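Take a careful look at the protein record below. Let me know whether the structure tokens fit the sequence:
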Amino acid sequence: MIIEHRTYTFRPGSVDGWLKKYEAEGLPIQKRHLNRFLGLYVSEIGRLHTTVLMWGYDSLADREARRTAMYADPEWQAFIAGVWALDAIQSQDVMIMNPAPFSPGA
């Protein structure tokens, strides 16, 4: 399994609005397409106004196929257009993480 680790940095004061929209609209769509939701975390100490979102995939090919299908979904397209209209996200970093040989699920 590989892990997609997405870090989003938000304008101060905009995280709560994004979280509500994501939970109500975006997450259900992503769960339908991406399947293995590992969690969403919000910073408490350190770099504030930051979230980390993680998804698990069988491989890079699995990730590519699932994300391609999601991007083609009209519901996802409407959701993401609404997210960009919020003008809340300042930066986005995406990493693909491979497990160490002794990690659970490796």
Observations:
- Residues 7 and 93 are 5 Å apart (CA to CA).
- Residues 15-34 form the longest helix (20 residues).
- The beta strands are 2-10, 36-42, 50-57, 89-97.
- The chain has three helices and four strands.
